[in-house]
Amino acid sequence: MRTLKQKILIYGISIAIIIGCVFPFYWAFVSSIKTGSDLFKVEFFPANPAWSNYLEIFKEQPFGRNIVNSVIVAVGTVSLALFLAVTASYALGRVNFRGRTTLLITILSVSMFPQVAVLSGMFELIRTLGLYNNLLGLILSYMIITLPFTVWIMTTFMKQLPKEIEEAAIIDGANTWQICTKIFLPLLWPALVTTGLLAFIAAWNEFLFALTFTIEEKARTVPVAIALMTGASEYELPWGKIMAASVVVTLPLIMLVLVFQRRIVSGLTAGAVKG
Amino acid sequence: MAPTLVVIAFVAGWPLVRTIWFSFTDASLSNMSAAQYTGFENFFFLFKDNTWVNSIKNTLYFASVSVVLETILGLVIALVLNTHIKGRGLLRTAVLIPWAIPTIVSAKMWGWMLHDVYGVINDIFLWVGFIKQPIAWAADPKLAMISVIMVDVWKTTPFMALLLLAGLQLLPQECFEAARVDGIHPIRVFWRVTLPLLKPAIIVAVIFRSLDALRVFDLIYVLTGGSSETMSMSVYARQQLFDFQNVGLGSAASTVLFFMIGLITIIFLFFGGIKGDKIK
Fold first, then answer.
1. Which of residues 40-69 of B touch A (CB under 8 A)?
2. Which residue in A222, A262, B120, B162 has a CA-CA distance of 20 to 30 Å to A195?
């Protein structure tokens, strides 16, 4: 049994951690429902809550459009990355061939690339393909961020599936495509959800490529829109509106975390601990 | 598998090769195809540029200080999460929030909290008595880097904690039971049993975080902009590439960063004692 002193210590630390993690988000929310001069008063419970900041970000600038862009890019990235990862992981996790480990390590090492190291080459590529200022260009460039870890995690899961299932299917006369779609896909659902979530969050939060490969306000994703939000003058940032936009962007992520936290944690650690 | 490899070669391999090629040319943004080979000129220029040399120092300083702090704090959080207390689920959910928030948003949120006139941090610190007068956290050249590190620690310690927690949960329970039966003090158990057993997990987590910290861009770009006191190598490279349209020089900076990270990875793998077969 733990002594009382130890218990107090552990609970004290836990409470400090929770406050430390949650307070900045709470403060952003509180600031977002303050308007006018209220914003500049330090109040932990606003006396006159108002939602006008939320209305203004959708009326005065294409923030709704930015959200739609982010959703399109994130969903597109997840779909493409999962499709490619499943086909690759079948070969990498199931078929024995020479240089398999080398290939896996090469793919994983891509995730260590500093994004800026491919920036000028990627810019040239995207312009050549005519995808500059286009959401497709972002989806394509996000493959460099998402493919390494989706392939890695899917391969790990694929290896864990018992070989007997596959052998039984072969004996029953199923071909490779059927084995993939009829046998593995249903078994891989949990892994697909986990990697899909991680890829979604990665694409939703990405900034450098989104900033560099778009030019118009209408083509921006939300992180870029928030980072470049300006007020009436250059020196006066519209903090209330920035906080409102921040809350809007973060809420869906917090929902995902609340619902899927076990899956997210297992996905995050699968990459590192097993790797 | 073939399509995946083609895509990776297309979006990672080819752009990397092009970037390295551009770093040996005088390419400009308006006319990238007219680039002329100029040898190592860009690299010579880089290392005569004080801003660049400073950005290397900033990057290394940022990465080392923040990773050390994140490891220590992450270990504390992981140990707490590993105890069987009530409300552990709540704690884990809370810890995931900073991780899930986009870096841009966390930079903005903290930028507002650290505001010199209206920031809540100054208010709390004044009230507690840590400081005597309001501080311009992100704007003061001496404090700007500390602010950046603070926000990074807030944002990424949870990731570190989860990795270390996963490591903790894999440790053989017999060792801890034996220690408990022998009546060994928990602090001694931590230093003599937990820490040595956890070392491989700590090394992996430190490698992951360091490589990530070395390419820092979003946080610094949003929190302190292009100020030279906090400029990282990635921020410098992007500024040359797109603000100054000097693709040759910017690519050279990117190339140096790429090889620096590559070198550091090799050093880590070599000294961390992690062999190739572990990566399987």
1. none
2. A222
